[in-house]
Each structure stands twice: as C-alpha cells, then as structure tokens.
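Structure in, sequence out. Go:
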C-alpha cells in the first residue's frame, strides 16, 4: 500500500513488532475472545490485519487452518517465529491489504480481526471485505477498543495520535454495528470488558517522542484533577499512572 496512512502504519508496526510477544499486553484477552468465537474442528479461518497473529495462533489448535494477513512484514515475521517455536503447523502468513482481500467470496468459515479497526484508513472497507469472504452461515468476529462517550472523540483521537501517529479513530459499539449492517451481516452478540493499561509501558511500546509523552501525561493528570474527560479513564495506582481501554468483541453472520 502506498497511501501516506499505509506508510505510517508500516513504519509504526515495524517499530512495535518486537514488542508483540506472547506475554503482557499483546496476549491479553485471547481466551475471552476465543470463547466468544466458538471455533470448530476443520474450519478455515482468516485473521485480518493479524499482526503477529495472536488471535490466529490462539484459534489454530481448534480449527483446520488459519491464514494470517497483514500489511507489515515485520509483524508477520514475529508471528511466524512464535508459531514455529510453539510447533503450530496449520497457519500461513501473508502480506496484504485488509481493504482488498485476495480471495473470492465466501471462502472462510470464520473471519476475525483484533485491535485494528481503529487503525485502518477505511474501516467500512475492511468490514465489507470481511463479510464478503465469509461463507453464508459462517461467522465474523471483530474485537477492538470501543469509544464509550462519542462526545470526547476529538480529544481521544488527539491523544491516541500523539502516542501513535498511525491511529485513525476509535469507533463506538453502534458504529461497528452499523458497519456490519451496511456490509450485509447481522450482529449476533456484543460483549465488552475493561482493559487497564500502564501509561508508561503503552507509550514505550510505540516509541512515542518524549515531548508527546509529556503532553499525554499532562492531559491525563488534568482529567484526574477534575478536568474534561478524554475517554481514557485515567487512574493513579500506587503512584503509577494507568488508564483503561474498553474492548468489545462483536460477532456477526452474513445475511442471505
Ligand atoms: C494494533 S496491531 C494489531 C495486530 C493484531 N491484530 C493483534 O491483535 O495483535 C494493528 C495491525 O494492523 C495492521 N494493519 C493496519 N492497516 C492494515 C491494512 N489496511 N491491511 C492489513 N493490515 C493492516 C498493522 O500492520 C498492524 O499489524
């Protein structure tokens, strides 16, 4: 992909790839998601914008085969290495664009995407593609951060982009539902959970420049002191700054 946003994504995730290990942040919530997706033996699964395929690798032992597609080669290389280390043999990694999937219609039983809709240039195109390549009666599973208070979107986006310039926009639950609806899928379930994060670790992983870290800390401290909300729900725990992303897992099935 040659758009400026695609270039920002590749650059950001080239930097972050080595932090996508199998413990800590990158591995959080996997059991919770897999349970919601109810994978079945023999299924053909596609992990869209898979990164190091944390979700695809968690699904692989339960299904027939997983294909993990991503824009950033360094993320795929990290996933491939982790898959080999754990002896997984039914997962394949390929570079590609989630907005133009290289498959005919209805090729997969289960199509998933974790923590990426907020990142991509055109989330509607990604959801359309996910629905298109899912077979009739198959399942789509989208997990992402959700914005609970739409009125703070502008400030939330400003802070997320200071931390990671490839962040696009965090969607609300009803916006994700609307994308699925417009793409011709029926939402079958939505569950959410709080995901508390250590602020300094979050900014370290994205190699956020110090001047932007200072502004993010300042703004969260302002909210803690009673200032306007940012949607990040900051807290101080034993002197450590934390904040909370709300994660949603939304499942759907193609209509007709
Ligand atoms: C926050 S990471 C999440 C990775 C993985 N899904 C996970 O759950 O760990 C976002 C990923 O989306 C990928 N990405 C962003 N836009 C993409 C696109 N248009 N096509 C394919 N991958 C994309 C990035 O390269 C990056 O690996």
């Amino acid at each position: 992909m040659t758009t400026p946003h695609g270039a920002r994504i590749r650059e950001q995730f080239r930097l972050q790839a080595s932090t996508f290990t199998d413990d800590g942040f990158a591995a959080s919530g996997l059991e919770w998601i897999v349970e919601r997706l109810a994978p079945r033996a023999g299924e053909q699964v596609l992990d869209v914008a898979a990164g190091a395929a944390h979700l695809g690798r968690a699904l692989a032992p339960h299904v027939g085969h997983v294909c993990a597609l991503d824009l950033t080669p360094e993320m795929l290389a990290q996933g491939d290495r982790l898959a080999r280390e754990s002896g997984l043999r039914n997962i394949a990694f390929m570079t590609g664009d989630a907005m133009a999937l290289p498959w005919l219609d209805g090729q997969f039983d289960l199509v998933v995407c974790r923590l990426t809709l907020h990142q991509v240039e055109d989330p509607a195109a990604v959801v359309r593609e996910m629905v298109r390549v899912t077979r009739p009666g198959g399942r789509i599973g989208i997990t992402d951060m959700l914005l609970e208070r739409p009125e703070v979107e502008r400030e939330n986006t400003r802070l997320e982009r200071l931390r990671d310039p490839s962040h696009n926009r965090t969607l609300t639950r009803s916006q994700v539902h609307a994308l699925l609806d417009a793409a011709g899928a029926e939402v079958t379930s939505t569950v959410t959970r709080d995901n508390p994060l250590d602020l300094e670790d979050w900014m370290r992983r994205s190699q956020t420049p110090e001047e932007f870290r200072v502004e993010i800390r300042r703004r969260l401290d302002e909210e803690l002191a009673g200032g306007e909300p940012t949607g990040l729900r900051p807290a101080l725990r034993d002197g450590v700054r934390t904040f909370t992303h709300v994660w949603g897992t939304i499942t759907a099935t193609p209509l007709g």
